[in-house]
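EI: anyone free to look at a 267-residue chain?
SC: sure, send it
EI:
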Amino acid sequence: MYKNLIKNIYIKNILIKNFLIYNEKEFLNSKFNFLNLKNYDKFNCYMEIYPDAGGIETQQLIKFFTDFYIKWFQKNFFNIVLIYKDIGEYGYKKVLIFINNCFSFFLVKNESGIHRIIRKNPLLSNSKIQTSYLNVKILPEFDEINENLNKKEILIETFKSKGPGGQHVNNTNSAVRITHIPTNIIVSCQSERSQIKNKINALKTLNYKILVKKKTDTKKFLNSFNIEKKYIKTYYFDNNLIIDHIKNKKYNLNDYFKLNIDFLNLC
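SC: here you go
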């Protein structure tokens, strides 16, 4: 683990140092581009986690995987924000994480795809082995979306936040709802106690949804970012085993979720 971490920090430092020395075109064609970086690999990125197939147990799985990713990012000094979470009865229905680091898209893009989980359902007694599927989508944050967001085309509303079961999180209008009028995309955020933070997170979520809407019409574009129906990993909980279908490797499941194994693109 520590050798991989040192290796990752070393390589990231080389990437950033030489990217600053050269302009983008020169860097991508230089000897320093030994990892075959593309022009979009330098961007921050979004990680969206949502069910691909399965029942209510996927809510518990999404929360489990979200907690794992967040702990891993924090341990390895990534700047992240959980900008959206759709809370369900047993966990999360969907989440969106913003990763704000140079080359973060390059480093985590191999997580993008279908994650297959084989285990007994913890929500049912005497449950048989069953298979659930989560979809992890990784997309870069394009500057063009942020720059071109017309303030005249968005409607911002505030309302009082509520927690699970209708309990009031606070008595102020801290929750934010934003409507993008041209596309009729509506996003809301109430995860923070601060209206300002909720507005920032809602705008990031809106940026992401506009990006997806603008780009998903082009299948070739999505495939260039590994956003397609392909298996990334299979998790066998009863056998304490993970199979990585991209790297053709096997991992100890307990070690993986205890943050002792690196999943970055560099490893």
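EI: Residues 1-37 form one domain.
SC: 👍
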